[in-house]
Design brief:
By secondary structure, this protein is an alpha/beta fold. It folds into 2 domains: 190 residues, NAD(P)-binding Rossmann-like Domain (Rossmann fold, 3-Layer(aba) Sandwich), CATH 3.40.50; 85 residues, no CATH class. It has a 7-stranded mixed β-sheet with strand order 7-6-12-13-14-11-15. Strand 3 and strand 4 form a beta hairpin. It is globular, with a radius of gyration of 22 Å. The two termini are 28 Å apart. The structure holds flavin-adenine dinucleotide. The site of flavin-adenine dinucleotide (FAD) has 34 residues, from helix 1 and helix 11.
Length: 368
């Protein structure tokens, strides 16, 4: 066999695994069916602006060791995610904080804001919420729900909030400080030069072939290496024998505009249902770009079928049960490692994917 590992998927999981295996003197071949490396963190450079092709990606973590790990490869800028929401003709700061409460009600102190929220929870909330609407109102009251959650969530899931299960929203953090920083993590930012720099560094010195679908000749690919690391869809690996696992999909409409600043912020959410997109990303603001042009992307949530990109797993009972069947089957194939968001049918943030690949490496090489 020519290689120790055939790694299917040049996303973050495959790239971290390949890097670490290569460091341990293992010969790796990485293949990806797309025409580029990086999976969903890939950026396309449009005259100096890194366009996040598969949705806005902001790196964040609380983990010192993981932060040190990624900083070996890239330096991060000091971008802080502070999204804006538009609703019923007005702008609001997110996440829900003292600025949002002032914009909603004119409340100026934490006490006033708390009193407003609590009185609405008492008046409209319930102890046993039976759907997402009741759950959200019981957590943050009616005004925040109706202005900033209801229509956005309904667009996102393609269903009425009263038809969505309450467990989708476990917590809705409210902050009684004037703090628009979306993440609570110790570290966040965007890699200087974009995510492709990170992927290129991880895959330095490793053979990578793009435009290659593993399933186009699985048997031949399997012959190439002693072990396979599979980061594609686990149900596809088993020919959908237990029926496909379901996802929510997205469509992106990206436009280049000959103006220097379209919306003044990287992320603007559109809550009202009259806009069929949920948000507009203006990519240059992730890296404080000062180009004369700009690039924006409208993000449309879509129902998923096998012809569409799989973005968000629907981890309800039915799909989770199907996944368990696939997982059991996967465990019976000792020379294939199933890892990453598609093979594990799980939403992972980037820091979690890196941590998961590093954990798998430790098991693989019997390191403590
Ligand atoms: P992927 O990046 O999907 O890589 C899998 C690769 O496998 C793909 O390139 C695919 O082409 C390839 N592949 C699949 N099947 C085959 C096959 N048969 N043959 C060959 N190749 C194959 N995380 C954050 O931390 N911050 C964010 O702000 C953030 N924003 C996000 C926004 C959106 C819209 C989404 C969907 C995710 C976001 N994430 C974010 C999560 C982040 O994208 C993931 O953690 C990460 O990309 C997962 O990496 P992966 O390698 O598991 O999967």
């Amino acid at each position: 066999m020519k290689y120790d590992y055939l790694i299917v998927g040049a996303g973050l999981y495959g790239s971290v695994f390949a890097h670490e295996a290569n460091k341990r003197n293992k010969k790796c071949l990485v293949i990806d069916k797309r025409n580029h490396k990086g999976g969903n963190v890939f950026c396309e450079n449009v005259e100096g602006i890194n366009v996040h092709k598969y949705g806005a990606h902001i790196f964040h973590t609380n983990d010192d060791e993981l932060w040190r790990y990624v900083n070996q490869f890239v330096t991060f800028n000091n971008f802080v995610n502070s999204p804006i929401a538009t609703a019923k003709g007005k702008l609001y700061n997110l996440p829900f904080n003292m600025n949002t409460f002032y914009q909603l009600w004119g409340t100026k102190t934490p006490e006033e804001a708390k009193a407003k929220i609590n009185s609405q929870i008492q008046e409209f909330g319930t102890d046993n919420p039976s759907n997402l609407e009741e759950q959200a109102i019981s957590l943050v009251g009616k005004d925040i729900y109706e202005t900033l959650i209801k229509e956005y969530t309904e667009k996102q899931w393609g269903k009425k909030a009263t038809d969505l299960p309450s467990f989708i929203i476990k917590r809705l953090p409210v902050r009684f400080t004037f703090d628009n920083n979306y993440f609570k993590d110790k570290y966040q930012g965007i890699p200087i030069g974009g995510y492709n720099v990170l992927i290129d560094k991880l895959l330095e010195g490793i053979e990578v072939r793009t435009n290659v679908d593993y399933f186009s000749d699985k048997d031949a690919f399997d012959q190439l290496a002693a072990k396979v690391v599979f980061t594609g869809k686990i149900d596809e690996y088993f020919n959908y024998c237990f029926e496909p696992l379901e996802y929510r999909s997205l469509e992106f409409d990206t436009q280049r505009l000959e103006i220097d600043n379209y919306q003044g912020n990287a992320v603007v959410n559109y809550n009202d249902k009259e806009f069929t997109y949920t948000r507009i990303i203006e990519h240059k603001h992730f890296e404080f770009g000062n180009q004369a042009h700009t690039v924006i992307t409208k993000e449309y949530p879509k129902d998923w079928d096998l012809s569409k990109e799989a973005y968000y797993p629907i981890n309800d009972e039915v799909n989770q049960a199907k996944y368990e069947l696939y997982k059991e089957k996967a465990l019976s194939i000792p020379n294939v490692i199933f890892g990453g968001r598609l093979a594990e049918y799980r939403y992972y943030d980037m820091h979690q994917i890196i941590a998961s690949a590093l954990k798998r490496i430790k098991t693989e090489f019997n390191e403590s």
